[in-house]
Amino acid sequence: MALDEQLVRDITAKVLRELSAVSPAPCSPIPIPVGISARHVHLCRKHMDILFGAGGQLTFLKELMGGQFAAAETISIVGLNPAEILKARVLGPLRSATQVEISATDARNLGILAPLRDSGDIGGSASVTLIGPQGAVYLEEGCIVARRHIHMSPTDAARLGLKDKDIVNIHVGGPRGGTLSNTLIRVDPTFTLEMHIDTDEANALGIAPNTKLELQQRSSQC
Questions:
Q1: Got the DSSP string for 35-103?
Q2: Does 30-34+148-215 carry CATH code 2.40.40.20?
Q3: Structure pTM?
């Protein structure tokens, strides 16, 4: 016996309603605050003494995340192009090894081949000379182009379903928008949620300071 067509429609509608009730709704894009990093330098104690005088201390200027701060002190960076000298701010506190972070455009202007690296990975990186008010330091290695990354706390990571060293894609809207792929996740209790890109990336995609970009990632709590 054939089923009544109206009965079939009623049963189908009921099943679809039940499926809709238990199926999770797709999450909206997750807004990620962005910070644009200009070139900067992290110094070790030995190089701090040479550049700013023995026992010199960094002068606090602005608090950053993870216990870091922007210092009032600046130095000059010199590469293989003698016509180009770049000024960079020093970030504190002092580290065990000196690291210089510049953009790819800076590297071309300096005439050096600075590799794209995660912060702290300076082995075999580019050579530069640093000049301070009290002296100069030649670095055989230590100059890199920093890889874009997102800082977040363990709470943020759990909320977003991510973990340290995961790789995600970030959507950038606007007339010059696009996708920032291969973005590294960095998780630490001292971090707050913020993506760090350099000036080249910001200019290429028309990203202004304090812009919020979109992480296309399903949250475990949405």
A1: EEEPPEEEEEHHHHHHHH-TT--PPEEEE-GGG-EEEEEEEEEE-S-TT-EEEEEEEEEEESS-EEEE-
A2: yes
A3: 0.82
